[in-house]
Amino acid sequence: MSKRVSTASIKQSIVVEAPIEHAFKVFTEDFGSFKPREHNLLSVPIAETVFEPRVGGHVYDRGVDGSECRWARVLAFEPPNRVLLSWDISPRWQIESDPDKTSEWEVRFIAETPSRTRLELEHATSNVMGKVGKACAMELMAIRVGRSI
Amino acid sequence: MAKDSAQLAALGDPTRRRIFELVGARPRTVVEITRELTVSQSAVSQHLKVLRESRLVRAEPKGASNIYHIDPAGLGQMRAWLDRFWRSTLAAYKVAVEKSVEEK
């Protein structure tokens, strides 16, 4: 049915003028400062996004009313080289706790020079595009428009 | 971009999201979809029309009725959205990290 849809991972990379340790630190500690705010499962605006820097930690959005949405779990935390996280958003616009229905995203940090770092991001979309996940990523789209209209 | 917005808007409605999920699980007819929901068949038809127009589902005639499938071309656009999500996140990250280096 959906054979023509690419199920390859989304892969992106970016080079930043920063030492690898600093690049890793900013990505994890300041994640909430640059993640687009319109990606929001809460019913209220996001006050902050928190990235808990340890395996078993979560990435969560905290709303202005104190409500929380934990939408990713930290699966690997290897400073300054790598983080691996889950993407826990279900087709029902809720947090998905069944690991078979979530996808994963990974960021690798590679020192190109002492002051320059390359980030390689890979979002394994096989689940996102899979039988359940199809609607999942659509939810993300709906969420985005839901907040802006 | 216009089509993208239409898809977003189409899924802003909870019943349409549910219909999209049902069709995503396996191809179904209007009757089969209606059986799973508490709304009327004509309401389901209206929702399917919106989903079709925004290229989230497509209809294939089978006998007297249509079988609804996920539209693979539409899903390609969805993938493009995720791609853009990460692109904008990484671009914003680059600005943030380089600014913090300057400030050190």
Give a short synopsis of this structure:
The complex is a heterodimer of chains A (149) and B (104). Chain A has 149 residues and is of the alpha+beta class.
Query: Into which percentage range does the β-strand content of chain A fall?
Result: 35-45%
What sequence of helices (H) and strands (E) makes up the elements of chain A?
EHHEEEEEEH
Largest interface: A-B, 46 and 42 residues
Average predicted confidence as pLDDT of chain B: 83
The strand count of chain B comes to 2
Strand order of the largest sheet of chain B: 1-2
**In what range is the share of β-strand residues of chain B?**
5-15%
- Can you count the beta strands of chain A? 7
Distance between the termini of chain A: 32 Å
**Can you give the helix content of chain A as a percent range?**
10-25%
Strand arrangement across the biggest beta sheet of chain A: 1-7-6-5-4-3-2
Fold and architecture overview:
The complex is a heterodimer of chains A (149) and B (104). Residues 1-6, 90-94 and 127-149 of chain A have low confidence and may be disordered. Chain A is an alpha+beta fold and 149 residues long. Chain A has helices spanning 20-29, 31-34, 133-148; strands at 10-16, 46-51, 58-63, 68-78, 82-87, 103-113, 116-124. Chain B is mainly alpha-helical and 104 residues long. In chain B, 69% of the residues lie in helices and 12% in strands. The longest helix of chain B has 32 residues, at 72-103. The chains are: A alpha+beta (149), B mainly alpha (104).
Secondary-structure map with pairings?
The complex is a heterodimer of chains A (149) and B (104).
Chain A: E1 10-16, H1 20-29, H2 31-34, E2 46-51, E3 58-63, E4 68-78, E5 82-87, E6 103-113, E7 116-124, H3 133-148
Antiparallel strand pairs in A: 1-7, 2-3, 3-4, 4-5, 5-6, 6-7
Chain B: H1 2-10, H2 14-25, H3 30-35, H4 41-53, E1 57-62, E2 65-70, H5 72-103
Antiparallel strand pairs in B: 1-2
